[in-house]
């Protein structure tokens, strides 16, 4: 029996249950990744994905397999491969993202005789573990958290000891993006499962920075104030269950505290947004959001352009936007501040901000990105409505000496001079 595994947001071999299950059911296996030419993606995320694909190829080669990379429209390419190679059974990891779900549904329709193996691993829990039906997902985070905290997280699965023989198929040349210009402020995000697992070990075990996470998580710049695991989570180089297992191991060795709990708390926020997408789908992308409520809105394209370029009347906001353009990264605190400014001070459609983040962020995750923007715009899951930040107060609290503003204003001036 010929099998095909479609790698998407699961660029790893450890804790990949769909791959493990498929591998047991076929004699030959075609491992495929499709570079979607229609995806909105900046140079930093593309570089991270390229590194992740290189690492995955090396991991597969150690098991006698190869990664076939194709470039184009995913549904058309996967359908053609299934038909050309006589694929009887295919596998992939379910993804809570409308575009990706549409691609998969199209392939299934075009290749109806092919059987599919789909096993959830992008989330901490699968639907069967949730203490409610997805359609009954709570409409705010706190009730969700209280209901799922007692649920045990399944342990991650090991890397497959072997894989079926590779089905030969040619790869396409990878598309070229302009490489990010060298910048000393760029954080050392190296894509791939190997680097992702190393970062988990570094943050939890090597440095034990997790023990101070709740105290440092609102930092604006630097490597160690937060876990920095989100890019690897977004591409599936590590799974949330792997992080949870390492966190539990850390607590068993060194003890639990408010900070170790808070890392779990943030994993639950990510989890909530994923299941929110499963419940509401396209409504996460609509102006009125899942609450069907009118947002604060103006019509000012110049204001949007100035925000994207870091040319607003607020130097603190500008510094964050320069950081994003120059590094592909922005702290969680920064994301909330610049989103609040765009929505509340400039009156711009929140979806334009979410789309800019989609294009720029190295750790873009559809459900988390669009869910968070809805939350801040007051059309999502916050029962209190719109979140408006006092920009001056935020700067006095988080950058009182102006170090962050000075750093990124200076860097921007150098790069544009």
UniProtKB/TrEMBL annotation:
Signal sequence segment: none
UniProt xrefs under PROSITE patterns: PHR_CRY_ALPHA_BETA
Keyword Lipoprotein among record annotations: no
Biased composition (Pro residues): 153-163
Domain Photolyase/cryptochrome alpha/beta: 1-127
NCBIfam families listed in its UniProt record: crypto_DASH (TIGR02765)
Cofactor(s) essential for the protein: (6R)-5,10-methylene-5,6,7,8-tetrahydrofolate; FAD
Keyword Flavoprotein: yes
Lineage of origin: Bacteria, Pseudomonadati, Pseudomonadota, Gammaproteobacteria, Thiotrichales
Function description: May have a photoreceptor function.
GO term, biological process aspect, one: photoreactive repair
Region (Disordered): 152-184
GO molecular function: DNA binding; DNA photolyase activity; FAD binding
Stated family: Belongs to the DNA photolyase class-1 family.
Cofactor annotation remark: Binds 1 5,10-methenyltetrahydrofolate (MTHF) per subunit. Binds 1 FAD per subunit.
Alphabetical UniProt keywords: Chromophore, FAD, Flavoprotein
InterPro entries hit by this protein: Cry_DASH, Crypto/Photolyase_FAD-like_sf, Crypto/Photolyase_N_sf, Cryptochr/Photolyase_FAD-bd, Cryptochrome/DNA_photolyase_1, DNA_photolyase_N, Rossmann-like_a/b/a_fold
The protein, known as: Cryptochrome DASH
Biased composition (Low complexity): 164-180
Residues holding FAD: 213, 226-230, 266-273, 363-365
């Amino acid at each position: 029996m010929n099998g095909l595994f479609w790698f998407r947001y699961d660029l790893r071999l450890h804790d990949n249950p769909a791959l493990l299950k498929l591998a047991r059911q076929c004699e030959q296996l075609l491992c495929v990744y499709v570079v979607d030419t229609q995806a909105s993606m900046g140079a930093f995320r593309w570089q991270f994905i390229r590194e992740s694909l290189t690492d995955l190829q090396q991991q597969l080669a150690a098991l006698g397999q190869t990664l076939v990379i194709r470039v184009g429209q995913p549904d058309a390419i996967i359908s053609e491969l299934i038909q050309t190679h006589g694929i009887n059974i295919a596998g992939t990891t379910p993804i809570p993202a409308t575009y990706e779900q549409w691609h998969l549904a199209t392939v299934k329709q075009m290749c109806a005789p092919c059987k599919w193996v789909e096993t959830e691993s992008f989330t901490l829990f699968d639907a069967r573990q949730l203490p409610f039906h997805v359609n009954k997902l709570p409409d705010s985070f706190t009730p969700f958290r209280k209901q799922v905290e007692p649920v045990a997280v399944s342990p991650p699965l090991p890397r497959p000891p072997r894989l079926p023989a590779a089905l030969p198929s040619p790869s396409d040349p990878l598309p070229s993006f302009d490489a990010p210009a060298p910048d000393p402020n760029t954080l050392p995000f190296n894509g791939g499962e190997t680097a992702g697992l190393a970062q988990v070990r570094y943050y939890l075990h090597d440095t034990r920075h997790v023990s101070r996470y709740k105290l440092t998580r609102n930092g604006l710049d630097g490597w160690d104030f937060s876990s920095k695991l989100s890019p690897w989570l977004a591409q599936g180089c590590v799974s949330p269950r792997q992080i949870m297992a390492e966190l539990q191991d850390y607590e068993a060795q060194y003890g639990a505290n408010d900070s170790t709990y808070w890392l779990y708390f943030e994993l639950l926020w990510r989890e909530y947004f994923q299941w929110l997408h499963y419940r509401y789908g396209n409504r996460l992308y609509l102006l009125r959001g899942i609450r069907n409520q009118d947002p604060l809105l103006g019509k000012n394209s110049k204001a949007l352009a100035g925000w994207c370029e870091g040319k607003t009347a607020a130097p603190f906001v500008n510094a964050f936007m320069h950081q994003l353009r120059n590094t592909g990264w922005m702290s969680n605190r920064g994301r909330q501040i610049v989103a609040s400014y765009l929505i509340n001070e400039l009156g711009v459609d929140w979806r334009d901000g979410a789309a800019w983040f989609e294009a720029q962020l190295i750790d873009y995750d559809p459900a988390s990105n669009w869910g968070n923007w809805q939350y801040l715009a007051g059309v999502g899951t916050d029962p209190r409505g719109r979140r408006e930040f006092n920009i001056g107060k935020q700067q006095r609290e988080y950058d009182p000496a102006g170090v962050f503003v000075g750093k990124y204003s200076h860097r921007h001036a150098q790069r544009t001079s």
